[in-house]
Amino acid sequence: MLLAFGACVDHAPSWADFIANDMTAGTGTSSDGGAAATTGPASTLDEPTPATGDPEGTTDAASSGDASSAASDAGSTAGGAELVPPRILAVDVPTKVHLAGPVPVTVMTEGASLVRATLDGAELELFTDQGGGVWTGAAPCFGAVDNGAHVLEVTATLGPLSHAWPPVMFEVAAPAPGDLAWARLGPSGSTSRRVVVTPEGDAIEVGSLVVDGAPRPSIRKRRGKDGTEVWAEGTIVLDSREGAVDAVALTPGGQIWVAMNVRQADSKWRPRIVLLDAEGHATGVEMPTDAGTTVRGIASDAAGGCIAVGFGSSGYGDTDIKIWRMNAEGVAVVSAKGWDHAPNGQLNLHGFDDLAFDVVIKDGVAWVAGASKGKHDEWWFETRGILVPLDLETGARLDPVVVQEAYGGWRQGMYLGAAAHPDGVVVVGYGAMTDEASQRIELALYDAGGARLWWSPEAAVDVAYGTGVAVSAHGGVIASGVVMDGGTLRGVVLGRKGLTYELEFSSGLDPSAVYGVALDPWDQVFAVGELTAAGVRYARAAFVRQ
C-alpha cells in the first residue's frame, strides 16, 4: 500500500480534451429552383411525382381542412390564398469525414419556416436559418466508433406543409482508436496531475512548475487542435509557496475550481480550494481551510459550487476522509468534515484509516473514491478501495458504501479515480496480492444501489495502478495509469468496455506516468502526466484518437 500510495502522491498529472474535424467538403449547389446538384450517392433532384404533379414529400393543406385556416396557421397574410409548399433545392454534406467533430450540413430551400434532419434515424438539433433560404446544421461524429456509411434525411416545413429530400449518404473513415495525434512537453521540472476540457475542446491542465528550485502550483491551457498553449502568460503559477494543484473542475459558466496543497512558512501543509476565472486568474472566492489536511479531488455542481475531498488525522490515531463544500454563492458549508469507515454497525469509529482521492457528482449525489485500511473481513488488516456516496449539500453519508471485493489472493487495493457513467459510477485503481508482490489495474462499474455491474482486471505485473478515468458518449471507459514494463515505469491509456486499445506514454528507457484523462465534446482523449528524460522531469500532455 505504501508503495502505491507514495507513487500516487509523488505523481499525478492530468490534462484535457481535444476536438477536431477534417472533412472533405461536398459541392452541392442549387440551380434555378428546379434542379439541385448535391454530393453523395443519394443527392438527387426532386422531380414532381407522376400521380399528383406535386413535389414528393409535400402535403396539401386543403386535404386536411380549410385552406384559409391553414394559411392563417402558417402566418399567411394573403387571406384565404392557398399556401405554396416549401421546397428543398440542395443538401450539401461532405462525402467523407476523417476526424471526429461536427459534420457540417447546409440546406438550400424556398419557402421553408423550419428545417430538421435525422442521422441514421436519430433526430438532430434543429437547423439554423441563415437567411436567403440557407439553413445550417451539424451531424455528430465521434471518431472510429462511427466508421462506416451513414444516412442523413432532411425535411423542410411551412406550417402543415413539408418537403422531404431523398436520403443523403456520407462515410466516416477516422483513424484507429489509440492513435496518437500529438504530444507536448511542459517546462523542465514540471508535472501535470489532472485535466478538464472546455466545451470548445481545449484542455485545462494543472500540476506544478519548478520555480527557484521548488515546485509551485500551476495551471495552463492547451488548444485541442494541436496542443499549443492558449494563454498569453503560458503556464500560470497560482501560489508562491511550494506545492501543486492536485485536482481541477470546470463550472457550467466556464470558471475553474482548483484544489492545491501548499507548504506554509511553518512547514505545515495546507489545502487551498480556489475559484479561478476562465483565464486562470483568482476571482477572490476561496474555501477557508486549516493546516494538517490534504485535498486530492474536486467536483463542480450544476450551479457552479464545489465539493472537494481528501484526508487528514482524526485526532484519535487514525486517518479520516475529509470533505469541503462551498455553494455557488461562495458560502462555505462544511470544511474538513470527517468520515470514518465503520462497517456492519461496529462501534469502534477509529478502526480504519481512510483516504479519498477523487469525487464525482451523479444524480445529485457526491461519490467519493478512495481507500480504507482495516479488518474488512474481521481478521486481517487489508487495504481496499471504497466508494462512498455523500449528500452533496451537507456531506452526510448515504447508503450503500461500496468496498472493493477480494478474490482469492487478490485482497488489497485502492480506488484512485471516478467518473459518472450512464449506468452509475465507474472507478479505477488497482488490486494487489496479499503480500503486494503483484499488482494490476482494476476498473469497476457500480450502480446507485452498490451492485457491481462490470469489472475489468488488467494483466498482473510488479507495479500497476490506475489513476484517472473518463466515460465516452457511447458508455466506453477510458483509463489512465502506470505499469512496470521491463523494469521501466510507463504511463498508459486504456480503452475498455466496448473499446479495445492501449497507448504507452513513452518508449525506450524513459520512465513516464499518466495521471489523468478527459474527453473533448467528440470523445477524443486528452491524457496528462509526466516523462523523465536524461534525469529531468517534464509534464507531458497527449491527444489520443478513439
UniProtKB/TrEMBL annotation:
SUPFAM superfamilies in the record: NHL repeat
Domain of life: Bacteria
Biased composition (Low complexity): 28-44, 58-79
Region listing for Disordered, in residue ranges: 28-79
Protein name listed in UniProt: Uncharacterized protein
Species of provenance: Nannocystis bainbridge
